[in-house]
Design a protein that fits this description.
Layout (H helix, E strand, L loop, with lengths): L2 H24 L9 H5 L13 E4 L3 E4 L2 E2 H7 L11 H10 L5 H13 L5 H8 L7 H11 L5 H8 L6 H28 L14 H9 L5 H11 L8 H11 L4 H12 L7 H16 L6 H13 L17 H13 L4 H20 L10 H10 L8 H22 L12 H8 L1 E2 L4 E2 L2
Antiparallel strand pairs: 1-2, 2-3, 4-5
The structure holds N-hydroxyamidocarboxymethyldethia coenzyme *A.
Amino acid sequence: MSKLKEKLYNKIQNHRPRTTKLLKEHGDKVIDQVTVAQALGGMRGIKSLVTDISYLDPMEGIRYRGFTLPEVLEKLPKPEGAEMPYVEGLYHLLLTGDIPTQDEVEELIIDFNNRRGIPKYVWDVIDSFPSDSHPMAILSAAVMSLQRESVFNVKYKKGMSKMDYWDATYEDSTNLLAKMPLIGAYIYNKLYNPENGHRYPDSTLDLGANFAYMMGKDKPYDDVSRMYFIIHADHESGNVSAHTGHLVASSLSDVYYATSAMINGLAGPLHGLANQEVLRWLQGLKERMGGKFPTEEELKKYVWGTLKRGQVIPGYGHAVLRKTDPRYSVQRDFCLTHMKDDELFKYVDALYKVVPDILVEQGKAKNPWPNVDAQSGVVQWHYGVKEFDFYTVLFSIGRSFGVLSNIIWDRALGYSLERPKSVTTDMLEKMVGVDKENLIETH
Ligand code: HAX
């Protein structure tokens, strides 16, 4: 057993009695109530999921295992000379709650390297897609095709104890996480960068540096990759991608099914795809300006134009956050250090000064502040990844770390099959006293 797995096992053993006690002795205590608006409105805010891996405070933003993003970036071990920490160290933190030592990270890097092998049929699946397919569809299919490798599936068929589900899930998850960057880079090179060819990973490099190498990008793209994967890793359990992964895995589907499904959820423009929408929207503005940098008035006109056409401003607003997303701020700081004169970054920064006031004036969005997606595509663009359809693939690689860590713990703590209850509109009207024919109150 690896040191990480042993540590995880001990954490699981210590945690299990807490969940058992809560269920047995306090299972009928009320922790929330549900309004009509929540039932009709995407279950916003209902407290009905449990995770210890991350928590999203509306004002403060995300914490991983109790650490804010700046703390995570400061405390996790880094490769020599790097600004951003090892992604492998983040996996250790998400799983165990502990900041790993340099030795622990190095052992994990070797473990990831040993799990990188990808069967030929996966490359064949990717190659069989027409070149105008969306990279998210290809990624989802590639992950799905790997399902035949599932350790969980084989062990389950042989008859595995529930107490061991987490172990087989850990094996599947770590295998898949080690492979995801290779699959992502292969999709990029196939669709957009064929002259770079299919680069095999370099076993002397960590995950972030290897990703940059396979993409054919020089420094500091290794740090960009580390930053990108780390800040996108988790955002508690209610967002579409994390929740989809958790939901699918709750039926004991293996993590290949669950990850492919979570990727499909991330591919929506209100969620992960917003990062490519931001770039499309910024390019539209740039084209309109014909080479001249917009004045504040011109920016305002463009923003209002988008709203008046009934569209959302991509990269702004959030279902939970009520202030500037710290994931936006981390990337902004990186931009200020490395690319403060980049033209698109200047657009993003100029928009930051006008969009929130406009959204407040419009009076619809509950959160007028930028989210992670307002900034992330611009960083990729600067380092030559200009094919914005690809951005959500990068998000998916990062998000997999959080989703899979959660599924391992779901299995360890025996979380149930998800099965909320639905009601009909008739029932809702009766509950609140509305006559459905005349739409008048009955009491
Ligand atoms: N521009 C214009 N209108 C917006 C808006 C924005 N950026 N954000 C919210 N609104 C509107 C909503 O469309 C909604 O309008 P209707 O009443 O007409 O339906 C109203 O304001 C209330 O919405 P809300 O309660 O503030 O927001 P929701 O929880 O319903 O939705 C979204 C949250 C993130 C989907 C929303 O803010 C949005 O569409 N933003 C733009 C797309 C985006 O950036 N998505 C990425 C979010 C981060 C993420 O998950 N990344 O993966």
